[in-house]
Every structure is written in structure tokens, then in C-alpha cells.
Amino acid sequence: MDQLKNFDEFSSIFRRSVIPHFQFETWKVETACLIVDQNSAEPEPVIERLKTFSPALAEAHEWKTIQVDKSSTVESVEQQLAASLPDLIVTWRHLCETQMHPHHSLGVYVDVLTQVVPRPILLLPGECSQGAEKLPPKCQNILIATDHAIQESRLIHQAVAMGGKEASIILGHVEDDLSYQRYLQAIERIPEINTEIAAEKLLSQLLHDADRFGVHVAEQLAEQYPDLTLKTETMLGHRVQTFRKLVESQQTDLLVMNTKDQDQLAMHGLAYSLSIELRDIAQLLV
Predict the structure, then answer these.
(1) Buried b (16+ CB within 10 A) or exposed e, 6-29
(2) Of all helices (H) and strands (E), which one includes residue 84?
(3) For residues 148, 154, 157 and 161, what is the CA-based torsion angle, rounded to 10 degrees?
């Protein structure tokens, strides 16, 4: 029994020391597509504004435009995108939906395209084409919002590209406090487990994994981008409220999130909630 206990302790220590692998991959925007509607102004000024916002957009070799109107369908737009499959799609909420309640959804086009098109979507601030005017001068401060940091390497690749060599990136990882409390309540009902130790060690380990991954990522990026900064913010809290505070305190220019969930057709829950709540900030929906 003692040997099994010692082996289990050794295995735990070994697994705790393992750092999830991260290999930086350069992401480039060769072609970009701006989706507009009949209420939009001319697309050229919007494209020029986007080029000043992000170096990734400034380096795009080709810009295409898709205009939707009342006769358009999501399926027709999807077909047009599939024919050319740009590296990045740029649009805003509620295309052709002047009667919608903008505070309760993203609009049918964005809702569907985030799930069916295998390319990131840059969602401009606000609810109309004037979102380009609300962009900050430069995409300098970037927040990656996640509830599973060690599985979000692609978000880091794209955040680096959008911000450029001197960007300041926050890898934000928030453990949901309600879920954590539910785990502790279950542990309290198991006599064989010391509740106080479990409460301390469980939270420490949950945050430890994300912290170590963030340090590892920062070390990797420093080799290629010495002027770029990446730090990790890990904490326990209500995810939407906590990320809202982070966006405000860090003066965030761009919010980067994963929108795809392999277990469901709908957008990833965290990304959808933040997309609805934080309408006044540019969002990269990956």
C-alpha cells in the first residue's frame, strides 16, 4: 500500500511539472473579405481604416467585398466565401436587420458564419458600418479571453499577427467560480478527502496550469519578438464580469476568442456571452 501511495505521489509531482507544448506559427492575412449591407457607406474608406488599425490587415495583398441586401441569404454568402475562402472576414453585427434588438444577438449572418466558415471573423465595434470609425488608432492592447488557455494556441498566433511586433497581449484565463464551488460542495460529502486541503490545492492547480503555459508562451515569443509583451492573468470569478473588468482595466483594443465548440452547433458559450455584452470593442472571433 505504501509503495502504491509513493508511486501515486511521484506521478502527481511529475504530471504537475509537465508544461503543455507551444510552437509558434506565423499567421498571415493574404486575402481579406469585407461583408457590407445596403445601408453601408463606400467600402474603400473602411478598408483604409482597417489597414491603419492592424499590421496584419495592412499587409493583405487582396481585399474583396460582399454586399448583402434584403434578398440575400446566409447560404448565398457562405457559398461566395467558400469559393474564395479569404484568410479573414470583416463585418459587423445585424447586417440588413434594422428591426432587430441589437443588445440580444449578433444577427443571423454573424451567428451562422462564425460556425460554418473555417476562418476568423473580425467583428467591428457597434452595430453598423460606422464601427470602423470606433476603432482605436492602433491594435496595441489585445486580450485573449479563454476558459482553457492551454488549448488556445491558434488564438495566440492570430493575436500576435493582429497586434504586430510591439503589441501587448494578455492571455486571460478565468475559472468559473460557480463551477468551482459546486466541485467543493461535492468534495465536502466525501469523507476520505480533506476538504480544506482540496479547496486549496484544487484552485492552485487549476490556475497553475494556465500560468505555466503563459510563461512558456512568453519565452517562445520573446525569441522572435523581443519588443512584444505577453503576460497571463489567471483568476477565479464570474467569467463575463471578470473579463469585462479586464477589458476596461487594460484599455483593450481587440478581444480575441474561440467561437467553435466541437460538442455543439451553436457558438462557444463564453465567446457568445462576451460578444453580446462587449459591443464597443473590436473582436476577433476564431
Answers:
(1) eeeeeeeeeeeeeeeebeeeebeb
(2) helix 74-84
(3) -110
Q: What is the distance between the alpha carbons of residues 126 and 94, in angstroms, rounded to a whole number?
A: 10
Contact between 285 and 154 (Cβ < 8 Å): no
CA distances, 191 to each of 23, 176, 203 (Å): 43, 25, 20
| Contact status, residue 143 vs residue 170, Cβ threshold 8 Å | yes
Q: How many CB atoms lie within 10 A of CB 70?
A: 8
- List all residues 6 or more positions away from 3 whose beta carbon is below 8 Å from its beta carbon: none
CATH number for the region 20-285 comes to 3.40.50.12370
pLDDT in tens, 114-145: 988 999 999 999 877 677 889 999 999 999 99
Q: 157, 184, 173: which is closest to 239 by C-alpha?
A: 173
Where do the domains of the chain lie? Answer: 20-285
pTM of the complete model? 0.88
The predicted-structure confidence for 42-72, as pLDDT tens digits, reads as follows 899 999 999 999 999 999 999 999 999 989 9
